[in-house]
Amino acid sequence: MAHALESEKQISESSSNDDGSRDGLDVADMEKTALGQTPFPQQLPVEPAPPLRRLDSKPPNTANAEKEEGDPLAHLPEHEAAILKRQLDIPPVKLTYKSLYRYATRNDLLIMALSSICAIGGGAVMPLMTIVFGTLAGTFQGFFLKTVTGAEFTQKISHLTLYFVYLAIGEFITIYVATVGFIYTGEHISAKIREHYLASILRQNIGYFDKLGAGEITTRITADTNLVQDGISEKVGLTLTAIATFVTAYVIGYIKYWKLTLILTSTIVAIIATMGGLGRMMDKWNKASLAAYAEGGTVVEEVISSVRNATAFGTQDKLAKQYDVHLIEAKKSGFKMKTILGSMIGFLMCYVYLTYSLAFWQGSKYLVAGDMSLNDILTILLSIMIGAFALGNVAPNIQAFATAIAAANKIYATIDRVSPLDPESEEGKKLENVEGTIELRNIKHIYPSRPEVVVMEDVSLLVPAGKTTALV
């Protein structure tokens, strides 16, 4: 401290020598005054450290910080946060498959009922062919064994072949009506869904679009509605046809000879297990392949949008290698998926021949015992094969129905959302005479998508009627 005072004294003396004693104050008097007014202690007091047991050992309260991170509106007052949440909130909806037909008219329901009957009839027609085929085989057997004369053989063949023609005509009419009917109703209902979705979008408040975005709206009204349409159109008819085919085939088999039909039912278990297990693996690798292609597409989109910068900095090879990484990943996943697909097809073909061998091996025993004939064996075999493969085709359609329900969730959530600023609402007070003057008092404006930024704070504005007002 003494050194500091000496330095201050030297500075004061040099200043007085250069500038003179303008104020008439002596340097010594200045030192005494400074020392008298501002005494400097020789040593700063040191407070004793508090004992450790008195310290608060609780960890810092991070609840508020976590709340702000989880809820971007946590820093706002409750009434302001409630207003912003109402601007963005989209209440979830619970849908069932029946909900997809919300906008079906009476004509749509009638067409779907007729189409369902035709689809079931078309499915039942297919296994009936096995009865005709088995009878034909028995006729050929009788002709070779000389139990049927040539005239009888020709007459029976002509008669039975006409049944194939009749079945073909019936199959064509029923499947055609079912397919056209379900496609028509699917198009009509999906168009109604698009109309209601667009009308609901146009009723929403501006904050809703800040959160949703135009790209998502386009995806909903095109891709998602197509998924809904796919789940309520021709796949419904195909599913009903497959179920009817399966039921009819097994009814025919059990009527002909239930023991052999029950033995051949093992084919269904094998087909369902194979298609279910390998189908899940295929779906897994297919999603991985599509995801890799999507990531690669993002890289390509970024490169094309900034191709001038890529060329200027000479990063073409580096960017190409980045794209190759995604292509290689997609290639690996796609190869695995195709390998599983090949295995599935191989297993299914294997089951066909194993079923043939099992049917003829076990059927020969029943044939020798006199329990059944050759035409019964062929009828049961073909019925079981047709029914089993028809049931296997139901699984992809079930997946399409589930996808349609998932796609409709967000669409119907938007349709059912009540906008806080609905321009078509009839509620509230209607003014008979409107002067046209607009006045804002103490307005606080925050964008719902950016609640941390206050755009306007306590703003008042008056726009008189009949005058032009500019905001600068």
UniProtKB/TrEMBL annotation:
Disordered: region residues: 1-74
Q: Where in the cell is the protein located? A: Membrane
Domain of life of the source: Eukaryota
Return the Basic and acidic residues bias intervals: 1-11, 19-32, 65-74
Gene Ontology cellular component list: mitochondrial inner membrane
Cite the Pfam families for this sequence. Answer: ABC_membrane
- UniProt-listed SUPFAM superfamilies: ABC transporter transmembrane region
What family classification does the UniProt entry report for this protein? Belongs to the ABC transporter superfamily. ABCB family. Multidrug resistance exporter (TC 3.A.1.201) subfamily.
Q: What is this protein called?
A: ABC transmembrane type-1 domain-containing protein
